[in-house]
Predict the 3D structure of the following.
Amino acid sequence: MTRLGFLLDSESCIGCHACTVACKAEHEVPLGVNRTWVKYIETGTFPDVGRHFSVMRCNHCDDAPCISICPTNALFRADNGVVDFDDGNCIGCKGCMNACPYDAIYINPVTNTANKCNFCNHRIEQGLEPSCVVVCPTHAIKVADLDDPTDATTELIARSDTVVRAPEQNTQPKVYYRGADQASLDPLRTAIAPDGMIWADTTAQHPTADLAGDSVVARTVYTTAHQMMWKAKVSSYLVTKAVAAGVMMMAALMVTLGGHYYEQTAVAVMPSVVAWFFLAVTAVLLVGDLKRPERVYYLITRANRRSWLVKGAAVLGAFTVLCGAWLWAGLVESPGAQVLLSVLVVLLGAATAGYTAFLFGQCEGRDLWQSPLVLPTLLAQALVAGGAVYTVADLVMDMPDLVMVYSVMLGGIGACAVLIGAELTVRGTAQAEAAVAAMTQGRYARQFWLGGVVFGLILPAVLVSVALATDSGLVPAAVAGISAVVGMWFYEDSFVRAGQSVPLS
């Protein structure tokens, strides 16, 4: 059995970039992206300064999160232990990029598919070494057969003081560093030059560097920039499916507790139509966010059933069908069927709203998203969103007393406030705390506090309380519903973006 890995000897590396150039030439890597690159950091204070080089690339992890999250098996493990990829299977969902704790995967701007270092597996199969190994002038890059204790490089790894990047992620990386400065391997321990250029003149540190648990001991002066890939469409899809799930769950609750008190238009027709609309918007957002949307059917024909992208698609499809069954039960006026379906609506609605927590859990490169509070927050948001639909619909439908809806909505807002507060105050990893700092104090602070907290929590809570306390609460409740959903989007957008804002390489 063969299990290939790399030894990257930073003591020998001279920062010549021959490996980067050879990799680009071998694989026709476009400008602006890299499968392998050299990172420069500087340590010390003039005149006692030093420059250190570290080669960055895919770590070919034994427990590779990118393989688990890939919905179409585009990423797979070859027989020699290498994590390889198949361009022909990739739909460009970008999940692998957030799953990778090493920032090693990029979207090829020519093919719109995910690419990375694949160990030059086509060369390995021909008995050749990877192109970067061949061109390295100081033999700083070495191939190791980690299952062969007599392999020279494996022996060197065993007897040397070697380290791996981000061992706390437990991905079992197979790229070992010898003689590397720890600040080079942990991006939170370095200041970052604003333009990322080698001659940049700056002493400013990364805004999250002081949360790494260690003082900043160096500055990064040359590295490769990597773009944030999940943005407004992902933030919006979190809200649209919360609305779809929430309005159906609220309808099921009204049927269960209110019986025949509510007309079928209010508990069957309206929620089903609204849910279908927002599920359709959710599908458009999800497909639109793919880099290869024409391949979306691969989620069925080439599905990796371990991926929560695949499981989530199945949940959304099943919930869409259930909404139709719910509508039918209401139109034929079958109370027994509605009560029976209510249980399924609540369960599948919760799954629709909450499955993203498990998808985020597969994004092991983003520590903020690993919080166990993500799931209950999504469920509480669904209740708020469901109540919001009813408060707005009440303006035109003149429904009976919605005290129960107001109460559930207010309870959901309170739960969101408690859960978000706990998420921000409970200490986590350095990366998670860095992301929280970006969300609450940094680039995304305004949309979090003004949008997520003021418009999403405080204003709706006040207005719903007014609606509960007065007989003329129709308009305040509707404004509360709109404000809650808008604020929910701002919170989710700050959460999604802040989670990706922390450097990984």
Notes: Confidence is low (pLDDT under 50) at residues 196-214. The first strand starts at residue 4 and ends at 9. The CA atoms of residues 213 and 378 lie 30 Å apart. The two ends are 31 Å apart (CA to CA).
